[in-house]
Specification:
Blueprint (H helix, E strand, L loop, with lengths): L5 H11 L6 H14 L3 H8 L4 H11 L4 H8 L3 H16 L5 H10 L1
Amino acid sequence: DFFCSDFYRMLCRKINSGAMLRDEDWNEIEEHLRSVYPGFSNRLYGFCRMSELEYHVCMLIKLRIAPSEMASVLSKDTSTISTVRSRLYRKVFGKKGSSKDWDNFVNTL
């Protein structure tokens, strides 16, 4: 199971320490997500164009990382992370939705 893997535990330790994720870390996250959830990024990008920040938030949602921890590793306020998530919901569905609505959608992909 992915959530019991050494990679996931290492990533959680890094995130819990508040360390910024480097490009290599993001590449590795994407690679692992691709192997566990084939087509995840393609389906996600199929719904709308995304900035790098939006895509990183989506990857972290899929990895079950809490919004406060997302904010820490992305050097953003928690409110910014919440805004990104609710804005993505509006982009994809054309109506107002909560950040939790977006999380639920991402986790179905």
